[in-house]
Design brief:
Two copies of one chain form a homodimer. The first copy, chain A, is mostly helical. The first copy, chain A, folds into two domains: 50 residues, Arc Repressor Mutant, subunit A (Orthogonal Bundle), CATH 1.10.10; 147 residues, Tetracycline Repressor, domain 2. Chain B binds a DNA duplex (18 and 18 nucleotides) through α1 and α3.
DNA sequence: GTCTATATGGAGATAGAC
DNA sequence: GTCTATCTCCATATAGAC
């Protein structure tokens, strides 16, 4: 099982506006450029938390501005529109997720030494980074995972999410096909969808399990969740393969 | 595999308001009472479709009123607040879903004749009614399934959803425990959560599978989806059971 | 880079006529 | 049972001062 990581997602640095001309050269203090970056981060942090808690339409730019103690004009200056702010929230951490998943995939390929990669490694490689960050990544990552879960089943939001997550998903799908060479491609794609649905749902409300069990389950440890998810999903994939296949 | 059914969900008849005093007795036409019921249905239909398409916060009461060609006062007269309208959308079809699932559970128990119910029957009994209605239930049920999927991962909405779905879920959980007597209860509850997450995600965007497969999969037939979901989920449940268990 | 002020439109909810 | 008119508040976005 992979190791936990510190919260190290940092955003790219898009120009605040199309007219980036008006910038007085470093006259006052040396860090005058940097202040803007920090402000952007604070805005994205606040938006991430509020979108996670109340959804895109349930959050106003006023809420975001208020959360960082500024006026709304500061938010629209840095991000233009609410949609662009939403995209910025996705973008910031998506790159890190992609990186972790690719690292895991490469490591699994190395271990396999040309043989088919075990399905457990593929499931872990894709699911674990997301689940682990959700629980061990601090408040920012927790908010991000809730943010993803809340918007994952809404077509108008999945477009921007897919944009960032599909390239890596395709790499995993290719590897799944190598692991299950006799399974129809269609079945693999369905199974992958099932896996993503499970992954996203579980971070949304780890408390739902407790609720249904009437308080018998006390804590939502990520290890506890993943310990079940990995065999559950791996067995699911295997069940779609013809009887005498590897995986 | 269960049979399809016609679209027959009808609402209960809560009193429109606490002050239901002012009703002139049947003076004009005989069906004057019935008009109100029909109006309520039309409002719930419109709200269901709009909530499904744009979410609770993305839909205004004005949108709902406009969709049925009335003013917003008519909506608030019949349902009071937006939250109560939301609850009415859930309530109307939840009873039918519960009924279908209980029927399936009873039938499976009968077939089992006192033996443990096969896990396939439990998965089918719970998942099939939802998936089937989503695809074969007409536009109303399609909207409802999208409505559920869109709000399923948002805690403030799951409360009202759970209220209607938990009682039946508990009955299935009990039966799962009988089918897997040696599996820790905790594991069964997690697996059930995974199942629900998969079920809900798949109706939200059947098109996502096509998108990832770059057009290789042409249509989203419910039979196609369920044919994979059933063995996938059943195998997942079995994977959490100790080696020599039934199921 | 940040802020105040404001333009313009839409939100949920209610009063009261018909 | 339905509708018009309206209350109060909040939405996104922009202009322009500092």
């Amino acid at each position: 099982m992979p190791q936990t990581k510190a919260d190290t997602a940092r955003a790219g640095k898009p120009a605040p506006r199309k007219s980036a001309a008006v910038r007085s050269p470093g006259v006052s203090r040396a860090g005058s450029r940097r202040d803007g970056e920090e402000t952007r981060e604070r805005i994205v942090d606040a938006a991430e938390a509020l979108f996670a808690a109340h959804g895109f339409h349930g959050t106003s730019l006023r809420d975001v501005a208020e959360a960082i103690g500024s006026g709304i004009a500061l938010v629209t200056y840095h991000f233009g529109t609410k949609d662009m702010l939403f995209a910025a929230v996705v973008r910031r951490r998506a790159a890190y997720m992609a990186h972790e998943r690719i690292l895991a995939l490469d490591a699994a390929r190395s271990r396999a030494q040309g043989q088919p990669v075990p399905v457990e490694d593929l499931v872990s490689g894709y699911v674990w980074p997301f689940v682990e960050r959700s629980v061990a990544g601090g408040r920012g990552w927790k908010n991000y995972s809730l943010f993803v879960a809340r918007h994952a089943n809404s077509p108008e939001f999945t477009r921007v999410l897919s944009e960032h997550y599909d390239p890596v998903a395709r790499q995993y799908l290719n590897e799944f096909e190598r692991t299950f060479p006799h399974t129809p491609q269609k079945d693999i794609y369905y199974a992958f969808s099932f896996m993503v649905g499970t992954m996203v749902a579980i971070v949304a409300e780890p408390g739902r399990v407790e609720h249904l069990s009437l308080g018998q389950i006390k804590s939502s440890d990520v290890q506890e969740v993943f310990k079940r998810m990995k065999p559950f999903l791996s067995a699911g994939f295997r069940a779609l393969a013809p009887p005498s296949s590897s995986g």
